[in-house]
């Protein structure tokens, strides 16, 4: 499973209810669309850190950087490299 | 006039710090004085004068606070509106308020209605809150209400110029009147927490160790998130922690008291319509609490009593002047007893050993994460969606669920729709499509039956 699929699985398992997983696309806005609320974002950051074994600095937790699967993948890839 | 009771320290020679913004820049009382004077000139050039009604629509900042204070100085009635308010909701507020102007993010003034309204004398500001008719409603707060509250807070909590107050709540919430006014009136420092910082508890936890605020006033949800994500420990302890807006569950409260073991805690209570009207100082012992804390006793400027159905009725100086341009709604909210106006709070309260305890609501208003929400407002907005024919909204286990009939629509599409209509904290958690909604014998939606679909 690649990272984007892993991120999607995390989102569908604990954060987003959908009838059909295809509704959640890699570029679906997550935060600016209201799909994730402010408390979910905090939980999502914690889950991403554990899953990918990375750590975000407090100032890096900028909502714009977590607004889609694509964007989350970018920030995670940067962290892991 | 209210401004004369809060402006003793706002003068050109006071170089003490008045404000820290969210980037931790410091601004002195002298700078605040200068900024208010500059804004006053601009307001006058724009024909904004005493009893004009102005919407303040911007994120929290030094400049934003100066605008708010300038309104109070000039007795311009202000309506603080969150920077993240969706366009549709802002339009509703513009229309229903009949405001004369709006000051928006870049501090530019846009004129709306020319005619001044006949607003109650002594009005200070209008705080918009969720409305059961489906539209937000504006609570008119008087100068007298804010003056009585500020005076009482200054004494009860002994606020001095050595204090730093955290201003976490947005300006459109009544909680922020404590931080701003009792802080400034006593020459204290105020730390303004804007939307970006308010949502990033990890950063907030780091910053508060630098600012070391001595006083906190926030909802229990905020304290819980600070404990969970803000890395709180005993190295930093405020001297005073006030909470209000919802029940603080005993387990989390004990955890906070254990971390902040030198802090004095108070539970404050009161709807936006009366601001704080009861208070309770928690015991200072280290003993864990075993039961829900009372809302306590009446503040000296407020009067309280129970109706025959145990609804808390509130009177006194902090009472709102009414809902803006909503005479019927205002009349419904008050009851007259012996020629005195009392507000029907909708809260069911029990008195044990002279202390009041909050028990429940007598209507469909809910509290989610400390936010006051009318489920009818969500239902009303959902009906604007082309695929929704009928809708019922319920609140169960801290989650808002919308059940609807019409054409089945993806949850993602419905959430995105809600984001364009509602404030973020009102967006429902989930949506359930049904072929029909259960009705009772009167043909009305049977809300009690809806739980079975969750």
User: What is the general shape of chain B?
Assistant: globular
Order of helices and strands of chain A: HHH
Q: Helicity of chain A, in percent?
A: 40-55%
Number of strands of chain B: 26
Count of the separate structural domains of chain A? 1
Question: What is the spatial order of strands in the main beta sheet of chain B?
Answer: 11-12-13-14-15
Strand content of chain B: 25-35%
Q: What structural class do helix, strand and pairing data of chain B support?
A: alpha/beta
> How many structural domains of chain B?
2
Largest contact between chains: A-B, 25 and 23 residues
Helix content of chain B: 25-40%
> Distance between termini of chain B?
52 Å
Rg estimate of chain A, integer Å: 12 Å
CATH H-level superfamily of chain A: ACP-like
CATH topology of chain A: the name is: Non-ribosomal Peptide Synthetase Peptidyl Carrier Protein, Chain A
Summarize the structure.
Chain A has 81 residues and is mostly helical.
Describe this structure in words.
The complex is a heterodimer of chains A (81) and B (454). In chain A, α1 crosses α3. With 81 residues, chain A is mostly helical. Chain A is 48% helix and 0% strand. Chain A contains three helices and no strands. Chain A has a single domain (3-80), classed as ACP-like (Non-ribosomal Peptide Synthetase Peptidyl Carrier Protein, Chain A, Orthogonal Bundle), CATH 1.10.1200. The two termini of chain A are 18 Å apart. Chain B is built from 14 helices and 26 strands. In chain B, strands 11-12-13-14-15 form a five-stranded mixed β-sheet, sandwiched between helices. In chain B, strands 16, 17, 19, 20 and 21 form a five-stranded antiparallel β-sheet that branches. A four-stranded mixed β-sheet of chain B has the order 2-1-10-9. The N and C termini of chain B lie far apart (52 Å). Chain B folds into two domains: 3-298, Rossmann fold, CATH 3.40.50.12780; 371-453, GMP Synthetase, Chain A, domain 3. Chain B has 454 residues and is of the alpha/beta class. Chains A and B meet through α2 of A and α8, α9 and α13 of B.
């Amino acid at each position: 499973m690649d990272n984007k699929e892993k991120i999607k699985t995390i989102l569908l398992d604990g954060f987003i209810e959908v009838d059909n997983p295809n509704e959640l696309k890699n570029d679906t806005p997550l935060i600016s669309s209201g799909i994730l609320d402010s408390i979910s974002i905090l939980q999502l950051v914690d889950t991403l850190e554990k899953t990918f074994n990375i750590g975000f600095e407090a100032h890096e937790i900028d909502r714009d950087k977590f607004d889609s699967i694509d964007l989350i993948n970018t920030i995670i890839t940067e962290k892991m490299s | 006039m209210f401004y004369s009771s809060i402006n003793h320290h706002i003068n050109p020679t006071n170089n003490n710090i008045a404000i820290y913004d969210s980037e931790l820049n410091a601004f002195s009382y002298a700078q605040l004085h200068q900024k208010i004077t500059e804004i006053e000139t601009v307001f006058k050039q724009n024909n904004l004068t005493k009893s004009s009604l102005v919407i303040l629509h911007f994120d929290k900042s030094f400049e934003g606070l100066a605008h708010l204070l300038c309104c109070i100085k000039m007795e311009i009635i202000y309506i603080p509106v969150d920077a993240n308010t969706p366009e549709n909701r802002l339009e509703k507020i513009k229309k229903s308020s009949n405001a004369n102007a709006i000051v928006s993010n870049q501090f530019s003034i846009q004129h709306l209605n020319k005619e001044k309204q006949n607003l109650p004398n002594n009005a200070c500001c209008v705080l918009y809150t969720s409305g059961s008719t489906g539209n937000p409603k504006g609570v008119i707060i008087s100068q007298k209400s804010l003056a009585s509250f500020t005076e009482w807070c200054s004494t009860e909590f002994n606020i001095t110029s050595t204090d730093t107050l955290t201003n976490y709540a947005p300006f459109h919430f009544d909680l922020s009147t404590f931080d701003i006014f009792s802080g400034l009136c006593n020459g204290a420092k105020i730390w303004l927490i804007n939307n970006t910082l308010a949502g990033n508890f990890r950063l907030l936890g780091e910053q508060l160790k630098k600012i070391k605020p001595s006083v906190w006033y926030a909802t229990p949800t905020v304290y819980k998130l600070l404990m969970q994500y803000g890395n709180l420990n005993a190295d930093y302890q405020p001297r005073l922690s006030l909470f209000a807006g919802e029940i603080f569950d005993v387990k989390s409260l004990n955890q906070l008291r254990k971390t902040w073991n030198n802090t004095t805690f108070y539970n404050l209570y009161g709807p936006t319509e009366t601001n704080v009207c009861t208070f309770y100082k928690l015991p200072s012992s280290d003993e864990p609490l075993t039961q829900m804390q009372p809302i306590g006793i009446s503040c000296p400027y407020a009067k309280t009593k129970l109706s025959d159905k145990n609804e808390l009725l509130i009177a006194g100086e902090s009472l709102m002047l009414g809902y803006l341009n909503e005479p019927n709604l205002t009349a419904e909210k008050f009851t007259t007893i012996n020629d005195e106006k009392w507000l029907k709070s909708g809260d069911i309260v029990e008195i044990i050993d002279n202390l009041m305890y909050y028990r429940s609501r007598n209507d469909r208003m809910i509290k989610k994460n400390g936010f006051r929400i009318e489920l009818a407002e969500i239902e009303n907005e959902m009906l604007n969606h082309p695929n929704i024919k009928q809708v019922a909204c319920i609140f169960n286990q801290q989650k808002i669920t919308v059940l609807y009939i019409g054409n089945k629509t993806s949850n993602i599409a419905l959430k995105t729709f809600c984001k364009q209509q509602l404030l973020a904290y009102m967006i429902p958690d989930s949506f359930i499509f049904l072929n029909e909604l259960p009705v009772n014998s009167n043909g009305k939606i049977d809300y009690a039956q809806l739980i079975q679909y969750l």
